[in-house]
Amino acid sequence: MVEHKYEPTKWNEMKAPVIGGRETYQAKSWNPPKEKWGTFTEEGPAKVWFAEANATNWTESMICKAKDLFYEAKLNECFDKGDEVAIKIHYGEYNRTAILRPEYIAAIVEEVKACGGHPYVVNDTTLSYHTHNNMAYSQYQMEGAIRHGYTDATFGCPVLIADGYSGEDDYRVEMPEGLILKETFIGRAVAEADAMIVLAHARGHSITMYGGILKQIGIGCQSKRGKYITHLAHWGDPHDAIGWPKFTDQCPGKACKFHQMCDDSCPRGAHHVTEHGKVWNPELCRLCYSCQVTCIFSGMTGVTFEENYFPNAMIAHADAALGALKCFERGKVGYINCAIDVVPECDCFPWAGLAVCPDVGLFASKDLIANEMATLDAIDNMPINPGSVADEKGLKPGDDKFREINGFSPRITMAAGEKIGLGTMEYELINYEPVLTPENAAKWQVRPNKPVTMRLRETFHRHDLATEVMPFNRSEYNKEWVWNEWKKYDPFKGETPE
Amino acid sequence: MSGIVWIDAENMTVDNTVLHKLTELIHKSDAISGLSEGMRVALKVNTSEEGYEYGLRPSFIKVVAEIVNDVSVKRSVVCDGQKLVDYWKQLKGNTFLATASVKGYSSETLGGHFVINGGFSGDEGDLFPCGHANSEVGGVEVGTAVCRSDALWVLSHVTLHPLFGLSGALLNGGFECLSGRARTRLLRGANPYIFNGQCPREQDVHEFQHRALESHLGVSASVQGRVFYINYLWDITPQPEYYPYSAQPVSANLGFMASHDPVALDAATFSLLAEQSAKCDMVKNIDFDAVLKEAENLKIGHINQTVVRSS
């Protein structure tokens, strides 16, 4: 076994904080928060509608239930006729499979249109995050989105990047109420919408522990600049490693087979490998996670996070969510969590682990925090999926799953969110079960007013395609065959299960 | 003297279709020698307004995009800026894309990644100087899809233009590549619609032409002069693509012209159009020579040109 030499990372010490050009940034164009902004729930528990992830008939299709919940939770009242309605989703990293199926998004787009809204689907660009991230660059993100089936054709409305071609098309929003952040930067396709429906894939997250609707706003609506501030770039002293990558003394330098990937990971060239370690220049670093995540994804330990980074980042992303919501009037944003494929990591991962629990279902509400709490509680109460990381860690139903899996309780974010007015942690869960009636069976079908059988009846009347080739050529009908011969092909010899 | 390649619209056969002609145009123009593997190439096109029905067919763009993709071994970016004054008051990126989609313009049909130059708002851009000390404009904000590219190909649907005279390489490769905010600044309130009773003063038009020409220098600087121009002399309508309607074309289809020199290209284009539409008052009344002379004075290119024609 080769023994590596490790050298402490050589730092070029910062002489002073970086002075940028913020005096002139968008001085005249920033988007003032809406006057009627305010938390949706003023007192008491907020209602959250829930539909379980199971189906046995037409009405119980998850897509049909998503449409039902849209109306049950009165998300149709989040916008007026003629409003431009942003549908915020996550476009998913290249090669990622655990993402929302396009049908869920199409279903909500259809209902927004049916109610007179003008929907468009949005996501912002990300920071680099790791060497092979495709979401940091708008063109690559869209190519990935198309590969996932997220297109104008599948949704029936424009699909675009909220913060422009280069991730710079944003507005600065001030939020003095923020616990850590006092301003953030919101992609203009979000900031300029009249209303927004947030449709989130509820699952784990390695920075915020859990990612649902709040994550879709607190990170997903932030432009590149918004993501830098929310990720706490340059917060504190580099030696504290809160707003900076933490360089350990475990970097084997050029002996690491990933050292070139590591050097390539920084979009600003802030670090480079040496014979037995790294040299890092914090003046160039803006904290994009790229060196940290590339190192961690590679199974190495040379660049990582300070442990206290995570809870602070979680609180910061609640602040950032406030920045996005201040672009809307009160009640103009609706939320749907899809707790399906509840995997341990974010949709920005270029792979997907096994789901930590069976599919849970759909949650809809106008209260952000209540919806998140209902979703988290339901996920925690679900059984553990065999073979998943939750199973490997020996978790049981009722455990705070994402705390055990990712390190901190996601409820930190929710408590912070409640404190700054994003919603209430108290919720009243309303179980929604569709009733099977002919009307409900027809309601969300492709042609609700004319069953396909009636269309085919017209077709067959014009051209009887089956009769045209009858009688079909088959072996002669034989009762012995029909009753007994097939059993020779059955490993159970025709016995029916008990 | 600059060289122009002109492939006319005649002698159409099964192996000499429009798409064959466009391919030949590019090869005869030596356009691809300016490209290399790994270059990010922006193709600036004109997407039409709702109600304008003479826009270029997507396949006319796609054939060019695929050639660029092959040479650069990269998917090109096809872009256009938001309509400056949207006649239907739909000024946001989602409505821009919805209108383009109705016209058949998408990443799938155009052969390149279709984006809004300047992002959702149209205002995402960087400032570039307009080249000379006496510049009135000083600098212009060029849209990000253009200025973040290594090279720019300007694919212009040639039409008449109420302010500039001709919508071709000079306008589409300059003013039309700017962010929305920069274009508003350059217009200085001149109304680009003259059919609704509004008619800008002649002085305002001349001043706008000058500013638009200066902006061409800023756009060229943003891609370090790596610009190539194709003029599509096809469905040459009296109204440009940003109009919410168009009268029928003023001329028969004349084919396609290409050059590295936008002044020479527009000079050859207008000269041919004037010859073919001698009886058309709308064309006769345009004083495009003044625009060309000013462009030459600004050192954007040369008016004198050698046209090599083929079918």
Describe the structure.
With 498 residues, chain A is an alpha/beta fold. Chain A has 3 domains: 46-231 and 309-431, LarA, N-terminal domain (Rossmann fold), CATH 3.40.50.11440; 243-304, Alpha-Beta Plaits (2-Layer Sandwich); 444-489, no CATH class. In chain A, 28% of the residues lie in helices and 15% in strands. Chain A has helices spanning 62-72, 102-114, 138-147, 152-155, 188-191, 213-218, 224-230, 259-264, 290-297, 309-325, 368-381, 389-392, 401-406, 411-419, 438-443, 452-462, 479-483; strands spanning 10-11, 46-52, 84-88, 118-123, 159-161, 170-174, 183-187, 195-201, 203-205, 209-211, 246-247, 271-273, 278-280, 303-304, 333-339, 361-365, 427-431. In chain A, the strands form 5 sheets. In chain A, strands 5-4-3-8-15-16-2-17 form an 8-stranded mixed β-sheet, sandwiched between helices. In chain A, strands 1-13-12 form a 3-stranded mixed β-sheet. In chain A, strands 6-7 form a two-stranded antiparallel ribbon. In chain A, helix 1 runs parallel beside helix 2 (102-114) and helix 10 crosses helix 14 (411-419). The longest helix of chain A has 17 residues, at 309-325. The radius of gyration of chain A is 26 Å and the shape is globular. The termini of chain A are far apart. The mean pLDDT of chain A is 94. Chain B has 311 residues and is an alpha/beta fold. Chain B has one domain: Rossmann fold (3-Layer(aba) Sandwich). Chain B is built from 11 helices and 12 strands. Chain B has helices at residues 18-28, 58-72, 93-102, 107-110, 144-147, 169-172, 180-187, 202-222, 262-276, 281-284, 288-297; strands spanning 2-7, 41-44, 77-80, 113-116, 125-129, 139-143, 151-157, 159-161, 165-167, 227-233, 255-259, 305-310. Chain B has an 8-stranded mixed β-sheet, with helices on both faces. In chain B, a hairpin with a 3-residue loop joins strand 8 (159-161) and strand 9. In chain B, helix 1 (18-28) packs across helix 2 and helix 9 runs antiparallel to helix 11 (288-297). The relative contact order of chain B is 0.19. The model of chain B has no long low-confidence stretch (mean pLDDT 93). The interface between A and B is medium-sized, with 26 and 27 residues.
